[in-house]
Structure formats: C-alpha cells, structure tokens
Amino acid sequence: MKKIVVLGSTGSVGKQTLDVIKRHKDRFKVVGLSAGSSWEELARQAEAFGPQKVAVRNPEAAAKLRERLASTAIEVLEGQDGIIDLACMADADMALIALVGISGLLPTLRAMEHGKDIALVNKETLVVGGQLVTATAKRFGVKMLPVDSEHSAIFQCLEGEDVGKVARLILTSSGGPFRTWETEKIAAATVKDALNHPTWNMGSKITIDSATLMNKGFEVIEAAHLFGVPLERIDVVIHPQSVIHSMVEYVDGSVMAQLGTPDMRLPIQHALAYPERLGPAWNRLDFRNVPTLTFEEPRRSVFPCLDFGYQAGKTGGTMPCALNAANEIAVELFLKEKIGFGAIARIIEKTMEQHDFIATPTLQDLLETDRWCRAYARELTEYVPAATHVN
Ligand code: MG
C-alpha cells in the first residue's frame, strides 16, 4: 500500500489523481489533501477518502472546513505552513504536487528533505528551481516521477536505456488553439478563444500557457533538469493529434515514441504505480480513429514564448524564475481581461530583461527575484499600449 499526499487535490490533475486512487484502492491510500480555497470540494474529497490531514491555503476557508469536519478525526491545517507540513507528513511515502506556479517550490523541497518521493505535476517548480530541486532529490535519495504527459513519455522511452546514448529528446505539442490562426487575429484573441484547447482538458493557467506555447517553453527546461540532457539536444515538434506524447532519438537514429489517448490519468497512474504498470486502461488508442499523424515546425516568431523558454533555460540563474513570475502575472491579468493576449509575451520579455540577474542564486535569491518580477510585471501592464487591451 503506497501512502500518498495530494497537494492541489481540487484542481484538474488533483481530481483525476483521486479518480486513479479510487480505482486502485488496494494499492494507494490518501493520507493528506490540500486546496487553495475550494473548501467545499475538499470536504467532499476528505469525506470520500478519509485522509489523516487536510490543508487549505486560505485561512477563512480553513475555518469553514474545520467546522464542517468537526465530527471527524481529520485534522485541518492552514496557510502555506500548513501545506508544507502536509507535504512532509510522517505517514506519506509520496507527495503528488499539483500546485500551480512557484507555490509548489517550497513544499516540493521540504517533502524531499523528509524523504518523500515526488510525483511532479507542477513544472514551474523545476523551471524556477531546477538545479536546487534536482540536487535536493539526489542528496535525500528520493525519486522524481514526471506526471507531465511529455515527460512521462520520455521517461518511458528511456526505460532500460543509457541516457548517454540519447541524440535528442523530441517534445510534441498540440500547437494550442491558435496553431493555424493569423498573427493579427491571435493578438486580439479573447479569454474564451484561449481556453478552448483542441485536445487536452486542463486547468485555466496551463491552458493559457498552451495557447502562448509558454507551456512548451517551460517543458524544455523541465526536460533538461529531469533527464540531464542539454537544451541544444531538446527539440519541439507540433503534432496536432496529441497521440504521440513525446519521443527519444538515440545516437543510432532509432526513435522511440510513447503513444496513447490524451488522458492525464495515464501519466498520473504511471507515476503513482512506478515501477509497476496497472490495468485496465482508462482509454485505449483506436488507430481507426487516428488515420493520420501529422507534424509541423512551431511558428516561432508568432509564439515567441517558446524561445523565451530556451533562452531562459540556457542563461540559467534567476532568468527562468523571472520568466515564470512575469508569466504568472501576465496570465492572471489576461484571464481577468485586463490585458490582451498579445501583451503576455511582451510583459515576459521586458521583465526578463529588466530584473537583476544572479548567475548562481540561493533559494532566498529566487524568492526575492520572484517577488520583484511579479511587482514589476504588474506595474508594466499600466503602460501596455491601449490597442493590446482590445478583447
Ligand atoms: Mg505537458
């Protein structure tokens, strides 16, 4: 029986994780759950799964949940400290971290220090603190199992192989909802347009990141840290059908690919069960439904966020942290319809340029860079030309 803490259990991946655990009750036990403020959903999950502890970031929501769970033995923690305590809880074997943005960094590091294996959904943790996180995993002898579908695919294609014989990693991307749109039309895209992802059903932040291709920019950095392959040997190819989840090309030219339906429960289950495989399948790939698999080059000049990922990853230091902080703010403002879609990339580029770069940052430096860049990015939006506000 593997005992699991799910951080971010009321989000899209969190809910799908509980689906997986429910189907395999004989293998997995939920010992902790956390949410930001969705206390009613968390209450329902706690009643269904009976964890020892739950944590809620928002103190008012925590108070309401405490009242609701008063007649149970479930302990309710609150705030960032509560979420970190949950990630470290003595009884857990593994923490699945499905938090959004930099909020996953500290809980991941602390869970590792307490010997927990990590099922990593939260790619921003590796984008911002990749060196620190991989060094911490090594030092405490814990596993980092990717839940991101591309990285789960690469992980599976590397199984039993020598990573020294990898010629390149090839990440696939659906291309997002604007793959075939004209440039001018993209700049004026609405929130509804951007949330209309062609193949994957995900939370709103990552769906916007998929529309800008920032998500793919993050994923190349994530892959470099997870697999120890330099960015020069990581490629991105647009594959609109989302059937091939990613590929590994070896030095002899042989290419291994992992295929499946676009269903997050497969990579989630792979990470939870590793090194075992559990059946039955959630969905089987029926090749009669996918007669054609196509591939194209990303439109780099139309979607500059992809190259921002490469640039930040190659520069290292605080640059990926600045990239992430600016993106979090820009996406938040876009979702609130305060800025246009085209402004997201400009805010990121400017923040990366203007922040005080540190080549070998400590955790404190990263947190300070994050704070400064968020404030700067927010301020920048006041000067975004009016035309980009058009939605
Ligand atoms: Mg992905």
Main sheet characteristics: 7 strands, parallel
Low-confidence sequence ranges: 386-391
Bound molecules: magnesium ion
CATH superfamily of the largest domain: NAD(P)-binding Rossmann-like Domain
**Distance separating the two termini:** 51 Å
Number of discrete domains: 3
Q: In DSSP terms, counting alpha (H) and pi (I) runs of 4 or more, how many helices?
A: 16
Short descriptors:
4-stranded mixed β-sheet, Rna Polymerase Sigma Factor, Chain: A, Rossmann fold, 7-stranded parallel β-sheet, 16 helices, single chain, 391 residues, alpha/beta, 46% helix, binds magnesium ion
What does this structure look like?
This protein is of the alpha/beta class. It folds into three domains: 2-146, NAD(P)-binding Rossmann-like Domain (Rossmann fold); 151-289, no CATH class; 316-382, Rna Polymerase Sigma Factor, Chain: A. The chain is built from 16 helices and eleven strands. The protein has helices at 12-23, 39-49, 59-68, 79-87, 105-113, 123-139, 149-158, 183-187, 191-194, 204-212, 214-227, 265-273, 305-315, 319-335, 341-354, 363-380; strands at 2-7, 28-35, 53-56, 75-78, 94-97, 117-120, 144-146, 166-173, 234-238, 244-250, 255-259. The strands form two sheets. Strands 4-3-2-1-5-6-7 form a seven-stranded parallel β-sheet, with helices on both faces. Strands 9-8-10-11 form a four-stranded mixed β-sheet, with helices on one face. α4 runs parallel beside α5 and α15 (341-354) crosses α16. The radius of gyration is 20 Å and the shape is globular. The relative contact order is 0.11. Bound molecules: magnesium ion. Residues 148-150, 219 line the site of magnesium ion.
